[in-house]
Amino acid sequence: MNIGIACYPTFGGSGVVATELAKNLAKNGHNIHMMSYSRPARLDTLETGITYHEVSINSYPLFDYPPYALALASQMVNLIEYEDLDLLHVHYALPHATSAYLAKQIMCERGVTVPIITTLHGTDITLVGRDPSYKHVVEFSIDKSDGVTAVSEYLKRETYENFEIQQDIEVIPNFIDLDRFQKSNKSHFKKAICPNDEKVVVHVSNFRKVKRVPEVVSVFAKILESGIKSKLLLVGDGPDRQKAEQQCRDLGICDHVRFLGKLDQVEEVLSIADLFLIPSGSETFGLAALEAMSCSVPVISSNIGGLPEVNVHGETGYLCDLDDVECMANYGVKILSDPELHERMSQNARKHAATFKQEEVVKQYENFYEKVRERMGSKV
Length: 380
Description:
With 380 residues, the chain is an alpha/beta fold. The chain has 15 helices and 13 strands.
C-alpha cells in the first residue's frame, strides 16, 4: 500500500510510535510518505521505502500564527493526488485528523476517496482535546475518521467518557523493538559511573511537570537514606530540570545524581540500570516504562492511566498511588536489597515486554488498515 503518515516530529511518544511504525511498514513492503513540519526525531537516517515531506508554512503579515493545519491538508491533497495514497494514518487528533478530513473532502470532490485512520495517543484526549476551544473539533474529527485506534484501554475509556462520539475505537498498544531494547554488556560504562558497585536508578522523560522529576529525586534520596549505595541517572531535558537540579543541591545528593540530557541510544543507559522510576501524573501508555522492562529493568510507577497495563504490580515491579513518595522509596529499597526478587522481576519484565513485540503490533495495524479499506469497498 501507499500510506501517508502525519505526526509530530518531537521526542514525545506519538512521534516515536508513528516513526517506528513507518519503518516497520516499509520493511513489510509498503511505501510510506511521512508528513510533519520538521523531520521526525527517530527518522534520522535514510530509510528504504520512506519518503519524508516537510510541510512548508509561509509567513504572512496577516497571521500571527501560520495556519499549519491548512498547510498540512494541502500537503495531504498533493500526496493523495500525485503519490496515489491508499490511506492516511494520522497520529494525534489535533490538527492531524482535522487536516485529513479536509483533504479527504477536497479529494471526494475530485472523485477520489481515501480512508482516514486516526490514532489517539494521550494529551490530544486527556488535555488538549478537553479544552472548550477544541472539544467540538476533536469530536467531529474523530467521528469523521474511517477508523480510530487508541494506545491503551485507559485511553479508550477516557475518550468515550469525555467526548460525545459514535466511532468504534480499537485498542492497538504501543510496541517495542526487542532486539534494540535488550540488556547488553555495558560493564565498562557501569564501572565508570559506579566505581564502588553502586546500584543504578534511572528515569527517562521530557522533564515536564506531569512527569514528576522532582519526585524522582525525592524517592532516590530516601533510597540513599536507607543505606543502599546508588546513583541516579536522569535522561532527558525540559522545564523541570532546573528545579530538579536545585532539589539535588538542597538535599546534598549532587554527587550521587547525573543529568545526562537527551540521548538517542537510551537502551545503553537502561542496560546498566537496576531500577526504573516513572511517577508520572498522566501517562496514557508508558512507553518509557516498556523500554526499561524490555531491557530487563524492574519498574516502580504511579498507578494512573495506562501504566497498570504495562507494569504488572508484584511481577514486573510495583505500582503506587500518585505522589506517594514513601511507597515508591520503600518498594525501591525492597527490590534493590533483595537479589532474588530483583532477578525474578527482571526476567518477568523482559517476558511481559515481549507481549508488545513490534512485529506483532505492526501486524495488528496492517489488519486494521485492511478491515477499514474493505469496509469502504476497497481492495488491499
